[in-house]
Design a protein that fits this description.
Length: about 140
């Protein structure tokens, strides 16, 4: 393999996001308008150039339970610029899972990513963005 020759525009990008979903009001058992938060997740992204391949990237995503601080999943994706990378993790029996997609554009300057978290077959969190990679 050829050594990675990356312009400084790709350095490293570390992005963090948090999602608090599955918010519902249970009026039968609580005061009207009381909000119950049943899930809270953090998504920590790190997208960096691959050291051993030209025009390629490495992406690590940590999905964290914000209540316990436990890392629930930590997938790693690798691909060339301009090619989408996707990974699916989960348990078909329980309906729990994670689908992660990331692509760095052909110039190596912009990344698009999306993570979808499922619990018991229901979508409970989505974290998606398009970002410019740091110089």
């Amino acid at each position: 393999m050829r050594k990675l020759q990356v312009p400084m525009t790709i350095a490293t990008v570390v992005l963090a996001g948090a999602a608090m979903l599955a918010i519902s009001a249970d009026n039968a058992n609580s005061e009207q308008g009381k909000v119950v938060v049943s899930s809270a997740y953090g998504f920590e992204w790190q997208i960096t150039p691959l050291a051993d391949a030209e025009q390629a990237f490495d992406c690590v995503l940590k999905v964290r339970d914000l209540r316990t601080n436990e890392i629930m999943a930590q997938p790693r994706l690798r691909s060339r610029w301009g090619e989408e990378a996707q990974i699916t993790q989960g348990d078909k029996d329980t309906g729990d899972g994670l689908v992660v997609t990331v692509v760095v554009d052909e110039s190596g300057r912009t990344a698009q990513y999306r993570a979808e978290l499922m619990e018991a077959g229901h979508l409970v969190a989505v974290h998606a963005a398009t970002v410019t990679l740091a110089e």
